[in-house]
């Protein structure tokens, strides 16, 4: 099949003008919301505006679905336990080309669109990078007019809301759809049923054929909610289908008839618990029964939905299934879909094993997002047996046949078999979901060049030998529609004026800015926009936290989940060192700096929460110390989320990407910040390496150990005390953590950080990279003081980000893996 993707197209003529839009808003205010122009508050205006927009969206959705059905297109099905969508109104208005129309219409009604947009709760059905990547990908898929559907879980509560009390993180429930969500459409006609628990019966047929029958102990319903995904240009509107669990009433009736009304309700509650809440652990495998049930629940519902749609066109003829369907597994969370498809094909459709396996291994592809051992999913075989007894049998059979293949390749090599087996033997037998995913897929990809190399070399080297070419790379990307055009309107307008307005569809066009990088007027215009964005963020900081920050200071930003490998504590140690230098020498020469953080910690991750507490305590002290105040400020912005990122990113001067080399698979915040003209201070890790290749060494500040150096130091026996005793600044700063300087009356409140870096062995080599990091900050300081040099660096960063559009990532997937063709939907 030919991998063709249509090239960028212009925004279509807007389908509705200001007058009509205004009327639609008023109509919805009256007849949908039962209020009127005089009574409506911003929330009502938001809902009415969404409803007016949704009319356009649904028309596009209807046309798209009809076109895809009539053309019987091959489609990609993106299975992901997380979709971190953020807000949708502004995005949908932008993608439909109706932003100005809506703005004008509301203005005539005396309402500011910007206030209305602030009413929308974030749809935070994801933890971080992995979930946001899924959201960027479905934006690109629709924009590039590719037939695609996203499948996930309709969590009632998304990622927790973070409050900071006395410096510490407190988790509060997120309720994104408390008062109804205007974008989702319930589709009861497509409800699926999912079985759980029970036992397997073996039956012997006449012809000697063995048939397995699973007698489930419980059945739950999956109710689909569709969120329309509007492509830029507004022609293709794809769907994100999210499954909500509901009681099926199965096995409740006996209880009910016996008068057990209350017990029956309890069963309902259990069924509904499945989609109740998103697990808040980023990059740690929880090992909880409910989590495995969540994974199976949405994978099974999605597969059955895919098969239902296939059968509508092809009946019981399975021969074309792999031509029509490709399923991308976003990490191993949906890997259970592999044995589930085998079960459906072998037990239900009665295909022989080999034919079924042949279909499976031509349908699934798997993306690996991390090398961290604690994030690689393994499930106790006992748990599997209890929840999914038939699937465990199927996994054993897959493994049995695979072991025969291994034996052919490496005869009598038991160590090799132990390494490659899906089943890890030990105290407790475990099912390795990564192995299952590699064995059951036709392609496996990492998410940045270095990461994919390490997947091949360190994680799955034998699989790479066994199946050369199966392991590949697709570097991540971000949608420039949300992450530049929508979040940074003033910069977008300036870019439009300079190089035209088709860059959001063809991001390489930004290259055209590079030739203006030395132009004084353009530099001034570019930095004026940055300054205005900094002012807007400063206002937000003042309003929400009461802290004054100087917009002439360097805005130095680290925004991402809190994790030791991301090394927010390296940043913190350096801030403490600057503070100390300023106290020791009031004339210490540095350009004023504001260090700004945004980060959520997994609720059970003690050290991560301690680091948040420490940042806040250091911030309190520094921000209230008049001796250093004109030079140093520290701000921890609570409740970091997509909509807050959209305000922070356009205002950033310096982007902190300082993970231990080899640990950050790609990173995508690094791309968003650079796209908005921030200069990266970063290690040679993840996509930082590819960013450096694009922008050139003069326009990024790289520091620290390489992957090879990290490995060598570890092998030679890394000892953090060497750095503690040999570096006076490191020693002073770590010792400072033990006093009550930052926590008056509570000495030792911050000591866990020091402990992790010394007795704890400093697993992420913070101390080993400290000096290099400190020097790199001096380079940043000097560069910023040279206004023209800095403006040039900022412009080049924006100009060279073309590679990191998610459209390019999707094009890579299409060509290397999915083999899809775009399908034009007539407007
Ligand atoms: C993340 C990785 O940590 C990032 O480096 C990467 O950019 C993104 O995925 C997207 O590929 N990741 C995550 O957010 N959650 C996981 N469980 C594993 C990886």
TrEMBL record:
Gene Ontology CC terms, in alphabetical order: cytoplasm
Cofactor(s) needed: pyridoxal 5'-phosphate
Protein function: Phosphorylase is an important allosteric enzyme in carbohydrate metabolism. Enzymes from different sources differ in their regulatory mechanisms and in their natural substrates. However, all known phosphorylases share catalytic and structural properties. Allosteric enzyme that catalyzes the rate-limiting step in glycogen catabolism, the phosphorolytic cleavage of glycogen to produce glucose-1-phosphate, and plays a central role in maintaining cellular and organismal glucose homeostasis.
GO process terms (BP): glycogen catabolic process
Highest taxon of the lineage: Bacteria
A molecular function GO annotation: glycogen phosphorylase activity
Organism: Alteromonas aestuariivivens
Claim: NADP is one of the keywords in the record: no
Record's catalysed reaction(s): [(1->4)-alpha-D-glucosyl](n) + phosphate = [(1->4)-alpha-D-glucosyl](n-1) + alpha-D-glucose 1-phosphate
EC number, as in UniProt: 2.4.1.1
Protein name (Swiss-Prot/TrEMBL): Alpha-1,4 glucan phosphorylase
Modified residues (N6-(pyridoxal phosphate)lysine): 672
Keyword Transmembrane helix: no
InterPro entries: Glycg_phsphrylas (IPR011833), Glyco_trans_35 (IPR000811), Pyridoxal_P_attach_site (IPR035090)
Family per record: Belongs to the glycogen phosphorylase family.
Keywords for the protein's UniProt record, in alphabetical order: Allosteric enzyme, Carbohydrate metabolism, Glycosyltransferase, Pyridoxal phosphate, Transferase
């Amino acid at each position: 099949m030919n991998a063709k993707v249509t090239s960028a197209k212009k925004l279509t003529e807007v389908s509705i003008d200001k007058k009509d839009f205004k009327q639609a808003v008023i109509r919805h205010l009256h007849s949908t919301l039962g209020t009127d122009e005089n009574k409506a508050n911003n929330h009502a205006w938001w809902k009415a505006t969404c409803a007016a927009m949704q009319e356009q969206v649904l028309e596009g959705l209807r046309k798209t679905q009809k076109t895809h059905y009539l053309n019987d297109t091959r489609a990609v099905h993106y299975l992901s336990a997380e979709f971190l969508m953020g807000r949708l109104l502004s995005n949908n208005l932008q993608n439909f080309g109706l932003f100005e129309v809506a703005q004008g219409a509301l203005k005539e009604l005396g309402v500011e669109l910007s206030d209305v947009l602030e009413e929308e709760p974030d749809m935070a059905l994801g933890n971080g990078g992995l979930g946001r990547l899924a959201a960027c990908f479905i934006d690109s898929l629709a924009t590039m007019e590719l037939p695609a559907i996203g499948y996930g879980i309709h969590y009632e509560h998304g990622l927790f809301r973070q409050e900071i009390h006395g410096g510490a993180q407190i988790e509060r429930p997120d309720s994104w759809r408390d008062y109804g969500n205007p974008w989702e459409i319930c589709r009861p006609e497509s409800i699926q049923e999912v079985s759980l628990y029970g036992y397997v019966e073996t039956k012997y047929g006449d012809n000697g054929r063995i048939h397995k029958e699973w007698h489930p102990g419980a059945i739950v319903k999956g109710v689909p909610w569709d969120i329309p995904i509007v492509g830029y240009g507004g022609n293709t509107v794809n769907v994100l289908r999210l499954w909500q669990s509901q009681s099926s009433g199965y096995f409740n009736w006996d209880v009910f008839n016996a008068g057990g009304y209350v017990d029956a309700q309890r069963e309902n509650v259990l069924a509904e618990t499945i989609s109740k809440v998103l697990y808040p652990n980023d990059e740690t495998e929880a090992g909880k029964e409910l989590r495995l049930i969540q994974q199976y629940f949405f994978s099974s519902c999605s597969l059955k939905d895919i098969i239902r749609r296939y059968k509508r066109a092809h009946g019981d003829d399975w021969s074309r299934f792999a031509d029509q369907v490709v399923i991308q597994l976003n990490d191993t969370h949906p890997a259970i879909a592999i044995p589930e498809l085998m079960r459906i094909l072998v037990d239900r459709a009665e295909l022989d094993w080999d034919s079924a396996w042949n279909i499976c291994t031509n349908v699934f592809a798997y993306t690996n997002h991390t090398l961290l051992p604690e994030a690689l999913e393994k499930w106790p075989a006992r748990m599997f047996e209890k929840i999914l007894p038939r699937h465990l049998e199927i996994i054993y059979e897959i493994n049995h046949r695979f072991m025969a293949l291994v034996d052919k390749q490496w005869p009598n090599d038991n160590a090799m078999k132990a390494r490659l087996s899906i089943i890890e033997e030990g105290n407790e037998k475990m099912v390795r979901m990564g192995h299952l995913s590699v064995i059951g897929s036709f392609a496996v990809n990492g998410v940045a060049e270095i990461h994919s190399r390490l997947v091949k070399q360190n994680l799955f080297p034998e699989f790479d030998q066994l199946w050369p070419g199966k392991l590949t790379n697709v570097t991540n990307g971000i949608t420039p529609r949300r992450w530049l055009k929508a979040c940074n309107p003033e910069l977008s307008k300036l870019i439009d004026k300079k190089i035209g307005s088709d860059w959001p569809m063809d991001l390489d066009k930004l290259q055209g800015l590079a030739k203006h990088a030395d132009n004084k007027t353009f530099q001034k215009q570019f930095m004026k926009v940055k300054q205005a964005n900094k002012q807007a963020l400063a206002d937000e900081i003042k309003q929400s936290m009461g802290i004054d920050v100087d917009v002439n200071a360097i805005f130095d930003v680290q925004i991402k989940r809190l994790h030791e490998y991301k090394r927010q504590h390296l940043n913190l140690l350096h801030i403490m060192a600057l503070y100390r230098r300023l106290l020791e020498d009031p004339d210490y020469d540095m350009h004023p700096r504001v260090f700004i953080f945004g980060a959520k910690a997994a609720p059970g991750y003690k050290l991560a929460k301690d680091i948040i507490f420490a940042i806040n305590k250091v911030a309190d002290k520094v921000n209230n110390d008049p001796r250093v105040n004109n030079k140093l400020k520290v701000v921890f912005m609570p409740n970091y989320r997509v909509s807050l990122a959209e305000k922070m990113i356009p205002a950033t001067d310096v982007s902190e990407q300082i993970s231990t080399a080899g640990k950050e698979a790609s990173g995508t915040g690094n791309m968003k910040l650079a796209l908005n003209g921030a200069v990266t201070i970063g290690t040679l890790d993840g996509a930082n390496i590819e960013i450096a290749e694009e922008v050139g060494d003069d326009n990024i500040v790289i520091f620290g150990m390489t992957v090879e150096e990290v490995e060598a130091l570890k092998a030679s026996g890394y000892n953090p005390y060497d750095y503690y005793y040999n570096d006076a600044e490191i020693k002073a700063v770590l010792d400072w953590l033990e006093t009550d300087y930052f926590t008056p009356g509570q000495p030792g409140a911050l000591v866990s950080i020091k402990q992790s870096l010394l007795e704890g062995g400093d697993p992420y080599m913070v101390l080993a990279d400290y000096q290099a990091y400190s020097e790199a900050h001096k380079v940043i300081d000097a560069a910023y003081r040279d206004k023209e040099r800095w403006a040039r660096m900022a412009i080049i960063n924006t100009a060279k980000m073309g590679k990191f559009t998610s459209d390019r990532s999707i094009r890579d997937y299409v060509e290397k893996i999915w083999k899809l063709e775009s399908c034009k939907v007539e407007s």
